[in-house]
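One example copied in:
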Amino acid sequence: MNMNDYLLDQIKPLRLKDTVKSAQKVLRNNHITHFPIIENNKLLGSFAEDDIQTIENNNEELVEHAHLLNSFFADEKATLLELLKIFADNDTNIIPVLNEAKDYIGYFDLRDVLDVFSTSPFMVEESETLIIEKLRNDYSMSQVVQIIEASGGQLLGLYISEKNLDNVQVTIKVISEEINEIMQTFRRYDYKIISMHENDIYLEDLKSRSEYLQKYLDM
């Protein structure tokens, strides 16, 4: 997917000689969390709305507050997941974009990137979502893929959704008519199924055994 199709240039970057008042106007009119500052088509950084709105003397030039510049950007060849990470890491809804020569060429808007992600096969294909857990040192992505494919499933995608010193949790999107078979195989390989699924044979069996034991104890 070519993310350059979503490259924007409607919001013009400012320069350090511009005033705080002009920056506040840009923020007010465009509802953005940051705006880029360039000189000679080179990105110097981005000012955050929270910082600019707290400056009392809005007739000052932005250069007086250059120490507040945030340094983040995306390469023009950045992937969708790379962009999502930049958005999240910098708590922003706009990312400046640079070309191979490190020239500023525009920006990505968070809404556009989320729209692309929400319409990707990973999100829209009818599928099952599994969340599995494994000891961190024992986790193997290749093993996860092998288990799914050997059980007749089709993997749409996966990502590590939680990680600590001991365990790792992986969220998986899979197309399968035999999701129970996949879950049982994961359990045989000492994976814990975190997500809840209707008609989970393993859980139904545990429930039946628990009910039988309770009846026995009540006798």
Notes: The CA atoms of residues 1 and 79 lie 8 Å apart.
